[in-house]
């Protein structure tokens, strides 16, 4: 009986096990089919990578421009949490991490394009690669380049830092190749949130960037022949013709593709105000763009005579909050860069900047004034650049603007005039105004009174602290070659 009882007790267990076995056996027959998401992306293609490549890199640079780029170049200033304005920068790893992450996608895009012989996608990948590496090297100096982005393919986790001179040689070579590749294959480019698949405009961007970087290194190398070669052959090297060609990402009114600053808290946005340096310059020129870049002070906004007033850069917290009688008497940054960024006009003005037509004209004006190129006059390029800069922010240029003191072209003041108008035209366009000021010295800027950098305006970011532990040997070699790892060591092209 005990034996029979034991058997009877086990029957439910055996039956349950048999049922489960039959159930899983039946499921196993269709397991792969049942557990396959019909909407899942199983194969990454260039059109899926391209939007992320553009959006992530542009948004990173625009965020850096808001946090430090506009501040250090004295277009905006801070009235609270003023460390950035006093050059107490600390670890600036966000640019490094964000752009190297974007470069992994760029590398994947390039490899996919090569494998499928899609030259248009490869050309675009080379343009984006060149621009991203230029921002990295202009921000930090020598950086990983030739051995970078090889952790997965070559198990290279401690890449060497390349000298900036070699990085620029690679950037320029890639832009030359991009110009050759673009338009040489017939695939339709999908996922292009910058130019909607217009390959000719990508070629124009490649060549405009090429001229930017030739000018960047012009204090170190003779670039006259290379610049003239581009201008001499517009069929081979098309260039921006107007603002319609701008390499500037147009954001949308809907999330998640809105202008990045639009989503900030009001308090965070209001920490940033118009810099007195830029405000005084615009007021002196009677330049109506001040109404785009800033707004009348709160104290005067509803009066018959609204006033614009900036705050000096580099004040301590107490001095900044109390300047000019308090924050009600200091202009906030323009509404088109915040709450009105999703308005029709805001969508035209608040864009993600890679490069635009006004900058190209100022580059050509400088090149012509220095005898690096022949053709149009420096004055012609300069005045075209000013007109285009007004147009880019949807503002009518006053009829007498080009003849005003401090604006009217004079060959003996060409560098100062061009540099100043270029600086104004580069308002909130990422880090480019800072890079260019370091090269030219225009406009003439002074560190703020409470700065913590011995009255010096920084000329680079220090390397991320994580590199000291994760890539110490390569970093040390770069520091030995380049100079002390601090914010005052100039990069290679800055040794003029």
Automatic annotation (TrEMBL):
Keywords: Lipoprotein, Signal
Any coiled-coil regions, as ranges: none
Signal sequence annotation: 1-26
Keyword Mitochondrion attributed: no
Annotated Pfam families: SusD-like_2
Keyword Signal tagged: yes
Protein name: SusD/RagB family nutrient-binding outer membrane lipoprotein
Protein species of origin: Sphingobacterium oryzagri
Species lineage: Bacteria, Pseudomonadati, Bacteroidota, Sphingobacteriia, Sphingobacteriales
């Amino acid at each position: 009986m005990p034996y029979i009882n034991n058997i009877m007790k086990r029957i439910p267990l055996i039956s349950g096990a048999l049922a489960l076995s039959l159930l899983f056996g039946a499921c196993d027959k269709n397991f792969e089919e049942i557990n396959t998401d019909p909407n899942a992306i199983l194969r990454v293609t260039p059109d899926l990578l391209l939007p992320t490549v553009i959006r992530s890199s542009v948004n990173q640079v625009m965020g850096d421009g808001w946090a430090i780029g506009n501040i250090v170049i004295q277009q905006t200033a801070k009235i609270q949490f003023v460390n950035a304005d006093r050059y107490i920068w600390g670890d600036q790893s966000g640019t490094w991490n964000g752009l190297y992450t974007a470069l992994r996608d760029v590398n994947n895009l390039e490899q996919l394009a090569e494998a499928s012989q899609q030259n248009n996608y490869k050309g675009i990948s080379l343009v984006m690669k060149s621009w991203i590496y230029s921002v990295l090297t202009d921000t930090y100096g020598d950086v990983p380049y030739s051995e970078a982005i090889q952790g997965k393919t070559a198990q290279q986790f401690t890449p060497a830092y390349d000298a900036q001179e070699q990085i620029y040689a690679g950037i320029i070579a890639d832009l030359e190749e991009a110009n050759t590749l673009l338009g040489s294959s017939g695939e339709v480019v999908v996922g292009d949130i910058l130019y909607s698949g217009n390959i000719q405009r990508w070629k124009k961007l490649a060549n405009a960037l090429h001229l930017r970087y030739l000018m960047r290194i012009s204090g170190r190398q003779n670039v006259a022949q290379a610049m003239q070669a581009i201008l001499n052959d517009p069929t081979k090297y098309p260039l921006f013709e107007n603002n319609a060609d701008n390499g500037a990402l147009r954001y949308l009114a809907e999330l998640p593709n809105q202008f990045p600053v639009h989503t900030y808290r009001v308090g965070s946005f209001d920490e940033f105000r118009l810099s007195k340096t830029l405000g005084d310059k615009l007021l002196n020129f009677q330049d109506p763009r001040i109404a785009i870049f800033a707004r009348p002070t709160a104290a005067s906004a509803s009066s018959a005579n609204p006033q614009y007033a900036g705050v000096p850069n580099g004040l301590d917290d107490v001095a900044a909050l109390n300047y000019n009688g308090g924050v009600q008497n200091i202009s906030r940054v323009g509404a088109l860069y915040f709450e009105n960024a999703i308005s029709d006009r805001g969508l035209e003005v608040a864009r993600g900047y890679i490069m635009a037509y006004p900058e190209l004209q100022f580059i050509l004006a400088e090149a012509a004034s220095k005898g690096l190129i022949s053709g149009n006059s420096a004055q012609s390029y300069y005045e075209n650049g000013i007109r285009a800069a007004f147009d880019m922010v949807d503002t009518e240029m006053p009829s007498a603007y080009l003849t005003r003191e401090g604006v009217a072209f004079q060959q003996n003041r060409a560098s100062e005039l061009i540099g100043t108008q270029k600086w104004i035209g580069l308002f909130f366009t990422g880090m480019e105004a800072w890079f260019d000021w370091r090269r030219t010295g225009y406009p003439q800027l002074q560190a703020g009174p409470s700065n913590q950098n011995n009255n010096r305006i920084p000329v680079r970011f220090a390397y991320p602290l994580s590199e000291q532990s994760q890539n110490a040997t390569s970093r040390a070699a770069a520091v030995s070659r380049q100079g002390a790892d601090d914010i005052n060591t100039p990069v290679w092209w800055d040794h003029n």
